[in-house]
Amino acid sequence: MDESAPFLQAAPWLGGQVQIETQWLNPAARGRRPLIVFLHEGLGSLAQWRDFPRQLCEAADCPGLVFSRPGYGRSTPRSAPWPRDYLQEQARALPAYFDALGLRGERLFLFGHSDGASLALLLAAYFPERVRGLVAMAPHLFIEPITFEGLRRARQAYEQGSLRAALRRHHADTDSAFFGWNDAWLNPDFQQWNIEADLRTLACPVLALQGIDDEYATLAQIEAIARLRPGTRLCVLAGCGHAPQREQPQRVIDETMALLAACED
Questions:
Q1: Residue 55 to residues 51, 71, 119, 132, 227, Cα–Cα distance (Å)
Q2: In a domain, 83, yes or no
Q3: Average pLDDT, integer, range 60-70
Q4: Is 2 domain-assigned?
Q5: Edge-to-edge order in the sheet of strand 7-13
Q6: pLDDT at 1
Q7: Are 237 and 248 in contact (CB under 8 A)?
Q8: With 60 as the cut, is the pLDDT of residue 35 above it?
Q9: Model-level pTM?
Q10: Do the beta carbons of residue 49 and residue 20 sit within 8 Å?
Q11: Where is the AB hydrolase-1 domain (predicted)?
Q12: Residue 236 belongs to a domain
């Protein structure tokens, strides 16, 4: 049996029971090296990370956990609309999934991208005893005008362009993945969304990375993390957009490994 093959894990989720598409990476390192948990972006999934998690885990000689949150990938779909606080909801739900995998009591190293970076920050703030450190790559802490511009472009590409077909390769229910995310963020009520107050209890080491050419946010996002968590390592990537793991993977790996080493000192 291939221990690294994706599988469906049953877990409690927001008052119900779901199936979560799950994959272990480098399982031979379990127990002797920190477990890196990958939290995908707002239109992401296990598959859409491509080979980056494996590259990072092999470089760091760490085990990895990659999964599709409910509503994404091959996990249980979730009907729209999602509430304005859906990321806060998911952060509170994730420990039950980790417990279902036998990770109760294990301190995790989180690697989050975009929505997943916001989720990593929330998870670390809500459950500081479960998180040893985190990477927040292209995070969102509050709404900016550029965020709405990117969301509207994504909707046009989904409804009139090729985005729907592209996502179909990665999600069992493409509309669940797209409209759950896009409808929530374009809802007028979402204009006041801000998680800075939630992050005041953030206590673990943090690396915050962002590309200068990010299509969804400005550097104000990672600068806010540095204000909330003194000692945060800031990494500004020139010539890089919203997906540093695809555009500058080696730089991201190098910076992550430096934080991992600091967490183990």
A1: 6, 26, 22, 21, 31
A2: yes
A3: 97
A4: no
A5: 7-13, 16-25, 64-67, 36-39, 108-113, 131-137, 206-211, 233-237
A6: 40
A7: yes
A8: yes
A9: 0.96
A10: no
A11: 36-254
A12: yes
